[in-house]
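Data deposition worksheet. Section B asks for the primary sequence of the deposited chain exactly as it was used as input, without tags or linkers unless they were present during the calculation. Section C holds the resulting structure in token form. Section D is free text for depositor observations; keep each observation to a single sentence. Incomplete worksheets are returned to the depositor.
Section A, Depositor: J.P.
Section B:
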Amino acid sequence: MSAKFSNNYYLKRGKTHDKATLIKLMQLTYEELFPNRSNFSHLSKTVEQYLSAKTPIWWIKSQIENNPSEVVAGLWMGTAIDQVSGDRYGHIFLIYVMPKHRRQGLATALIKQGKQWVEDQGYHQLGLQVFEHNQVAQKLYHKLGFVTQSHLMLQSF
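Section C:
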């Protein structure tokens, strides 16, 4: 499935063998958010454990790049269980847009695709986790109707 949604970009459904691309986008995400850390090799284990036909990926590719098959944004979806209600819901594992392609509506288009997938699964909620210091992403998510339900708290020892 491939869909053109602007003059310069098109959306394409990924496949489970797209592991290297998914790991690359995950690594870019964490390098950007945590520039003082250099080792994110564990991300490949996450992909190996959770990527399946039940956790779909969508890629956005640019038609204006030198290499039109290069991914400029991606969305990885899955499911989770609301621990209060017990209901399953769609969960965004990863959403990432390359910096030079931001502010073009790509993340919004990916979230729209994610919502469609959630509805197709018969779920009634879409969730995601966002880091506290990622204010730009939080602003976008609030604008798109997401509300904070909980805070993840960790203790290191």
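Section D:
The radius of gyration is 16 Å.
Residues 2-143 form a domain with the Aminopeptidase fold (CATH 3.40.630.30).
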